[in-house]
Amino acid sequence: ASHDYQPKKCPLSLKPDKLADYLTDLQTDELAFFISKREIVSQLDYQTLPASKFAGFTPDMEKVLLNFNLSGKNIQQLIGDLKVAKTKFLANDEIFLVRVKMSQVHPSTNFQMDMPTGNEPGVNIELFRPGGILPAVDDLVNVGQRIYPREAVIRNANSMAHNNDWNTFKSIFGNSNVTQIYP
Length: 183
Known about the structure:
Strands 4-5-2-1-3-6 form a six-stranded antiparallel β-sheet. It has helices spanning 16-28, 37-41, 58-70, 75-82, 166-173, and strands spanning 31-36, 52-57, 95-100, 112-114, 151-155, 178-182. α3 packs antiparallel against α4. The chain has 183 residues and is of the alpha+beta class. The chain contains five helices and six strands, in the order αβαβααβββαβ. The protein is globular and about 40 Å long. It has one domain.
C-alpha cells in the first residue's frame, strides 16, 4: 500500500514576521517526532516512512515530552499535545522520540526540512496551526494543559526503506537519536 492521501485546503497562514521567524528556526533548529515501534515493525504494508513525515522543532518536542512526563506518562496527554488520532499510541506500545539531526542521518537520505502546508497526509485540518502555539517551558506547570508545537515536515522521508526492521529504522537517524520514552 502507498501513503496516498486526498489533500485538504488549509485556510490558515502565518503573519509575515512569524513566517520569517519560523523559516529562520527551520534552518537552525533540529526536528524530532514521536513514533511507536509497532508503527515500524508491524505495519507490513509500509516499508518506508511517508514521503512527508510530520515532525516538530526539537525544543518544542522536548516540551511535549516534559508535559507527558508531568502527566505521569499519560498516553492521552501525548496524543492530545501532538494532535494525532486517538489510537496513534496504545497502552502496550513502546514509544520513542526520534531526533532528526541532519548531520547524523544516513548519508543516502534525501531528507529536506520544510514548513507544512496543511495538505500533507495525516494532517488534522481542524487542529493544524501553521507555526504552532507553544507555551514557554516555565508555563508547563499545569498537568493537562494543551501544547501546539511548531510543526515541520521531513520531505523525502520515504527515501530510505526500513523494511519493517527496527534496527534499520534506528540506523537511518542514528541509534543515539532514537530514545525510548514509554513504557
